[in-house]
Amino acid sequence: MEWPVAPFQARYELYGVGLPLGEAFMALDYPEPNHYAMRFEVRPNRLVGLLTSNQVQEQASGEIHNGQVQSTQYAQQADTGGETRDIQLRFNQSTGQVEARNNAEQATLPLSPGVTDPLSLHLTVMWDLERDQLPEQYTLIDGTQIRTYQIRNEGEEVLKTALGELHTVRIRQAQSGGSRITTFWFATDLQYLPVRITRQKKGREDLRLE
Asked: Does the residue 49 lie in any domain?
């Protein structure tokens, strides 16, 4: 079986405004041919756990069909102290609809080609980079909202990491007119695995995974 991206497990240190918050894990597997499963989990360190839960769990599954990543299900449970989110997404490719729920809010959204969920987006970008087919934008479902993000390739950069020096491609993701910018560093020798992720709000970094 040929995978768009080989199965992996990755562990990250998590920082908030420069302070260590805990660790995060991301994994990709293929439970059966042409079907993928992904998970992402944030575990706060003991000190942070005493102050606030800051726990996040995400699961996504879908199919590889005609050279595309097609989401079928996505779930997120998040408790970040001030906000609790319970998100469920079901992608129905045959009807062209997404059944979305964010806590008590529900919506039926149109499913256009290429629309994905926040976790499957990682697999999509890694595969697009591997094929040198990075588009100018991606569209995903965030809760019960459809959001389109502009993508910019900011070039290559060598990062010093716990694994040594890694050659990476730096990709910037932002909404038009939005105040949040997310930057990803994808390691070219690790099938474009994201080895650093930072988020900025109004020009200030508030989250980092590496």
From this structure: yes
